[in-house]
């Protein structure tokens, strides 16, 4: 740790913007045991900065099912709790973006996360994504909403970084997930180095690589029990930005048992086929449902303690560096 890094950590670590992430409660939300309103209560109770919620979280009670009046009431509750809202959708298509923008504006949310899910040869996929980004810029730039594209298992970090840099869209940046690069046949620190200039949001989780041919899938694990260099990444992300922190949101996305297959491979060539993928989903247990749902809740809360412990370790290391 350098003196500059140590100084940034001491200045920033106590106010690190931690966000509840709905996916940490994915199974409970699929069963409607936890609903969007409940996420606000949990985030408030845990003294978090805000909540990141997918438009479909909560099934029949999800944000996308709410009337304008209900969305406004939800946003007002978040405001009263002093919570920032960030809306997520699992597509870059115009209809999905328009829906997410409507929800964001009605709830007073500050940003929208999306990721593309196109099938085809890489270069054709990238052209489709560029067109989607141009649509977002042309149609929704005036809203003032921030838009982030997540590195989500099929596109490599340098491809995503190039999409952002070529867009010439100030309110458009990257969301860095701690494990999704495994599926694109990359490692976390390598992916970070390629994306670091444009990362503004983060999803924190841990995962193990699953060898598949000449690539890797990933299976999410408890934080601290996977292959992700959690502490190193957290240090590097906190230190991004010179005058002020570059990363504005650290999402607590514990997602134990989530699995995603390999998408990119050592021998794929320069224009590989990208297969279609559905939106992210963790399999529902076939037995012991109540115990699994309770474990999911505990895992989500425990991840917060894990992250705060690492943050304290980094703070003490920073103090030691500056006291030399």
TrEMBL record:
Pfam family, one: AP_endonuc_2
Coiled-coil annotated spans: none
Signal sequence residues: none
InterPro entries (UniProt xref): IolE/XylAMocC-like, Xyl_isomerase-like_sf, Xyl_isomerase-like_TIM-brl
Domain Xylose isomerase-like TIM barrel: 56-237
The keyword Signal appears for this protein: no
GO molecular function: endonuclease activity
UniProt KW keywords: Endonuclease, Hydrolase, Nuclease
Protein name: AP endonuclease, family 2
